[in-house]
Automatic annotation (TrEMBL):
<dbReference type="GO" id="GO:0005768">
    <property type="term" value="C:endosome"/>
</dbReference>
<dbReference type="GO" id="GO:0045022">
    <property type="term" value="P:early endosome to late endosome transport"/>
</dbReference>
<feature type="coiled-coil region">
    <location>
        <begin position="411"/>
        <end position="441"/>
    </location>
</feature>
<feature type="domain" description="BRO1">
    <location>
        <begin position="25"/>
        <end position="356"/>
    </location>
</feature>
<keyword id="KW-0732">Signal</keyword>
<feature type="coiled-coil region">
    <location>
        <begin position="521"/>
        <end position="548"/>
    </location>
</feature>
<keyword id="KW-0963">Cytoplasm</keyword>
<dbReference type="InterPro" id="IPR004328">
    <property type="entry name" value="BRO1_dom"/>
</dbReference>
<dbReference type="InterPro" id="IPR038499">
    <property type="entry name" value="BRO1_sf"/>
</dbReference>
<dbReference type="Pfam" id="PF13949">
    <property type="entry name" value="ALIX_LYPXL_bnd"/>
</dbReference>
<feature type="signal peptide">
    <location>
        <begin position="1"/>
        <end position="27"/>
    </location>
</feature>
<dbReference type="GO" id="GO:0032456">
    <property type="term" value="P:endocytic recycling"/>
</dbReference>
<dbReference type="InterPro" id="IPR025304">
    <property type="entry name" value="ALIX_V_dom"/>
</dbReference>
<protein>
    <submittedName>
        <fullName>PTN23 phosphatase</fullName>
    </submittedName>
</protein>
<dbReference type="Pfam" id="PF03097">
    <property type="entry name" value="BRO1"/>
</dbReference>
<keyword id="KW-0967">Endosome</keyword>
<dbReference type="GO" id="GO:0043328">
    <property type="term" value="P:protein transport to vacuole involved in ubiquitin-dependent protein catabolic process via the multivesicular body sorting pathway"/>
</dbReference>
């Protein structure tokens, strides 16, 4: 347990006073419990936040002296550097964790190595001999080794498999070997002085002891596998290593001696029993130990991590409102890095999207309509609407037929009247010619206009006019009848049962192979859409991540020389989504190739479906047109009736006039003949 400065930290910088004495005093005199660990972590974190805001580093304006008493030499070492104070606090954190670990039950695999590891990796080793690389390595491996011991003991109590216990024990040996190497270093030996030999002897004793435990359990595994020769050599090796441990244990406490004696009883009993069984029962050859596979350690312990910017550990940053201009500038640089990343990704996405759009346009494959088989299974809504409208008007066809019949009747009456008028005029002309012949006059040439009385001349003129109008109207009437005959069958269909309407609509007849081709094309088109949707989603996720990514707080507590490294680490958070996007983009080529192949097979099916769809649409349009033509037919029929009714009246009057004129002309001819 080391010492830190005992006076409060009162900083004066540019007229800004910062009183930091209360947390400082708490960090100097922490209680020897986990609350003390929490206090040290919080103080360490606040120092980390402070160092980037106030110039308290070595040879800076606001630097204050920090004193540290070395544990081995007893010397006091002072530096004016806030990082030195952080290093002191961190060392004390590791020391306090190790004290608590020694007092705790041997059931936890967490250890104090984290603080020493962070100290070794992030701070200069020249501050103090306590913080030299070799001493810190020694501390780290001692902490890891003891933590692995706890896990080993727990594994043995839980009766874990022999091979696993052997690997855990072998890892204890590995940690203590690393610690022993640190102790054997000449620099470490000079720093530790006389305790170096005692520590080295103790560590070596542990190496042999736990190597014996590892081989004991390898022998037990060989026993389980009925490899009786291997069992003997492992137990013999365990016994040899235990004997070496006992030699090195001289001067150790009685508890250690008792543990060694107990282990000797176990291993000795195992070895004697195994050797006897093999000599008299199994007679297996005992291999040389070096020919057997070495036991590889299993590092299962974990160092308690140190994260000076974790708010859950350090509490809120009490200097949060102090953001240096350099941090804002660095934040702008980081924003440009994010923008560059987004530009690079979007360039790839847009290039692939352009290829995809051009490809889909050339294919002319609409996923919504490529499979239109469902449309043939029901009557389209527009036809349903027409059927429903006709269902509430049951007399539609009857009314149309009657209207046309009435029109035909009037048409016939008009035609009869005009024909009778024309016949009267022709008869009168013939009589007039006979009269002229009797009187000895030369008759007019055949085809020349007849000489008529004034009354008959007017009748002839009016008749010609009516005939011309009738002829034109006759053409319209004929067309109207054709239209009626064309639409009336469709109207009868729409007025009938829906099953008949559905049956009248064309539908495709596909083979099973055709259906399989169609399903395969649909599946690949769905893949294309899925690829599009995933790409859009990933792009949106990336944009949102970039928008929310603000590392100003981290930049405040990061040294300028570490900015590039911090940027690289922070940008790694985008690696996973970039991988997903790369996979999405790379998949496009295979998807489009599969779509090309499927489209080739779909060509024949596509032609059939297109032809049926055209017929289906034509039929629907024809039926809709027939419904919509009904009102027009009724209107034109009524107009025709009105027209012919009027013409019929005029023709009737003209007929009466023609009869009267003919009678007058005939009477006149009779008078002439009598004379």
């Amino acid at each position: 347990w080391q010492s830190v400065p005992s006076s409060p930290c009162l900083f004066h910088w540019g007229g800004f006073f910062l009183l930091f004495s209360l947390p400082f005093q708490s960090a100097v005199n922490v209680p020897r419990d986990f609350e003390g660990c929490s206090t040290l972590r919080k103080y360490f974190g606040q120092l980390h936040y402070l160092q980037s805001r106030i110039p308290m580093g070595a040879e800076q304006e606001a630097a204050v002296p920090i004193a540290w008493t070395e544990i081995f030499s007893g010397k006091t070492v002072t530096h004016e550097d806030i990082k030195y104070e952080q290093a002191c606090v961190l060392y004390n954190l590791g020391a306090l964790h190790s004290m608590l670990g020694a007092m705790d039950k041997r059931v936890s695999e967490e250890c104090a190595a984290g603080a020493f590891t962070y100290l070794r990796d992030h701070f200069p080793h020249s501050y103090s001999v306590d913080m030299s690389h070799q001493i810190l390595n020694l501390n780290i491996n001692l902490m890891l080794g003891q933590a692995q011991e706890c896990l080993l003991e727990k594994s043995m109590l839980d009766n874990r498999k022999s091979f696993l216990v052997a690997r855990i024990s072998a890892q204890v040996v590995d940690y203590y070997k690393e610690a022993c190497r640190a102790l054997e270093n000449s620099e470490t030996a000079s720093l530790l002085g006389k305790i170096q030999k005692d520590w080295k002897k103790l560590v070596q004793m542990k190496i042999y002891y736990f190597a014996a435990v590892a081989h004991l359990h390898m022998g037990k595994q060989a026993e389980e596998q009925q490899k009786f020769g291997e069992r003997v050599i492992y137990f013999q090796s365990a016994l040899d290593k235990l004997n070496e441990a006992i030699k090195l244990a001289k001067g150790q406490p009685e508890t250690v001696q008792e543990a060694l004696r107990f282990t000797m009883d176990v291993i000795g009993g195992k070895y004697n029993s195994a050797k006897k069984d093999n000599d008299f029962i199994y007679h297996e050859a005992v291999p040389v130990l070096d020919t057997l596979q070495s036991v590889k350690g299993a590092p299962l312990v974990k160092a308690l991590p140190v994260n000076p910017t974790d708010p859950a550990v350090t509490g809120p940053d009490i200097f949060a409102k102090l953001v240096p201009m350099a941090a804002h500038e660095a934040s702008s640089l980081y924003s440009e890095e994010k923008a560059k990343l987004l530009r690079d990704v979007m360039a790839k996405i847009e290039a692939k999207n352009e290829v995809l759009d051009q490809f889909m346009d050339s294919m002319q494959l609409d996923p919504e309509t490529v499979d239109n088989l469902d449309m043939y299974s029901h009557i389209p809504p527009i036809l349903m609407e027409k059927c429903a409208a006709l269902s509430v008007r049951p007399d539609t066809i009857k009314n149309l037929v009657q209207s046309m019949q009435v029109l035909s009747g009037v048409f016939t009456d008009v035609e009869a009247s005009l024909k009778e008028i024309r016949d009267l005029l022709e008869e009168d002309e013939a009589q007039e010619r006979k009269l002229q012949e009797l009187l000895g006059k030369v008759p007019a040439p055949q085809g020349s206009p007849p000489v008529l009385s004034l009354g008959l001349a007017e009748v002839s003129k009016e008749c010609s006019k009516y005939l011309e109008v009738h002829e034109k109207a006759s053409f319209t009437n004929t067309e109207l009848h054709k239209a009626m005959n064309l639409h009336i069958s469709n109207l009868r269909l729409l007025s009938g049962p829906l099953e008949q309407v559905r049956a009248a609509l064309p539908s495709p007849s596909l083979t099973e192979d055709d259906k399989q081709v169609l399903q395969n094309l649909k599946r690949i088109l769905a893949k294309v859409q899925e690829m599009r949707d995933q790409r859009t989603s990933l792009e949106q996720q990336l944009r949102e991540m970039i928008q929310k990514d603000d590392i100003t707080t981290s930049l405040v507590t990061t040294d300028r020389s570490e900015m590039k490294k911090l940027f690289e680490e922070q940008l790694k958070k985008y690696d996973q989504i970039k991988v997903y996007l790369e996979q999405n983009l790379a998949a496009q080529e295979n998807v489009l190739k599969a779509l090309t192949d499927a489209n080739v097979k779909y060509a024949a099916v596509r032609k059939v479906l297109a032809e049926v769809e055209h017929k289906w649409n034509t039929t629907v349009q024809t039926l809709v047109a027939s419904y919509e033509a009904y009102e027009d037919l009724m209107k034109k029929s009524q107009e025709g009736k009105d027209f012919y009714t009027d013409l019929e009246g005029k023709a009737a009057k003209l007929l009466e006039k023609a009869r009267a004129a003919c009678q007058a002309a005939e009477a006149n001819r009779q008078q002439i003949l009598e004379k």
